[in-house]
């Protein structure tokens, strides 16, 4: 019997790359557990365009199935939600974890508001994702925790809060988030 490989896609945020923050740690940890991990380099992360990011995600993921998992950080979270909303016939899939996620305009980041203009199809996403979790930090100065809490409610997702992990960036000392690994393995 052939064992189907679990596919994990990690979507970085604004001004990030696959080599930053906790992404290399997560890739390494999940590959050791047998996952095929892909962290796409999103186009022009300092001047992101939603259409280009969704296009990149679509090409990278190719086809969602019951062995597909996602982890998305910050701007990557709303990108994932828009991508899933637009997905023609969204099949059932394992689920996703959003870290510092949001779905509305963030103060001081109005230039990214085109990511939140289109309505997210929460009903469609909730019906197809078997597992949804949201992770946020009480002292996040980029995406205030209330944005993630509201998003968690809309998704009817389990909410996990950290006291002082900021925006979960490497410059804040966050190079690993063991909770993500634990949640993925529980899916």
What does this 3D model show about the protein?
With 187 residues, this protein is an alpha/beta fold. The chain contains six helices and six strands, in the order E-H-E-H-E-H-E-H-E-H-E-H. A six-stranded parallel beta sheet has the order 2-1-3-4-5-6, with helices on both faces. Helix 2 crosses helix 3. The radius of gyration is 15 Å and the shape is globular. The model has no long low-confidence stretch (mean pLDDT 96).
The portion of residues forming beta strands comes to 15-25%
Tell me the helix content: 25-40%
- Report the strand count: 6
The gyration radius over C-alpha positions equals 15 Å
Helix/strand/pairing class, anyone?
Answer: alpha/beta
Q: Please count the helical segments.
A: 6
User: What's the mean pLDDT score?
Assistant: 96
- Terminus-to-terminus distance: 22 Å
Taking the sheet with the most strands, its summary is: 6 strands, parallel
The neighbouring-strand order within the major sheet is 2-1-3-4-5-6
Strand/helix succession: EHEHEHEHEHEH
Q: What gross morphology would you assign?
A: globular
pLDDT under 50 segments (min length 5)?
A: none
Task: Write a brief caption for the model.
The protein has helices at residues 23-32, 50-61, 75-86, 122-128, 145-155, 178-186; strands spanning 7-11, 36-38, 68-73, 93-99, 129-137, 158-162. By secondary structure, it is α/β, with parallel strands linked by helices. It is globular.
């Amino acid at each position: 019997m052939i064992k189907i490989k679990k596919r994990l896609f990690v979507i970085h945020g604004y001004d990030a790359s696959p080599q930053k923050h906790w992404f290399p740690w997560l890739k390494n940890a999940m590959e050791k557990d047998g996952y095929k991990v892909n962290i796409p380099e999103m186009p022009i992360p300092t001047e992101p365009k939603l259409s280009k990011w969704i296009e990149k995600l679509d090409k990278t993921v190719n086809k969602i199935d019951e062995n597909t998992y996602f982890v998305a950080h910050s701007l990557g979270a709303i990108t994932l939600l828009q991508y899933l909303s637009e997905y023609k016939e969204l099949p059932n899939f394992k689920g996703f974890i959003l870290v510092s996620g949001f779905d509305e305009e963030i103060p001081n980041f109005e230039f990214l508001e085109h990511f939140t203009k289109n309505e997210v199809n929460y009903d469609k996403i909730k019906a197809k994702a078997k597992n949804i979790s949201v992770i946020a930090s009480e002292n996040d100065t980029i995406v205030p925790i209330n944005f993630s809490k509201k998003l968690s409610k809309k998704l009817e997702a389990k909410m996990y809060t950290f006291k002082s992990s900021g925006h979960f960036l490497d410059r804040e000392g966050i190079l690993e988030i063991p909770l993500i690994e634990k949640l993925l393995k529980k899916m």
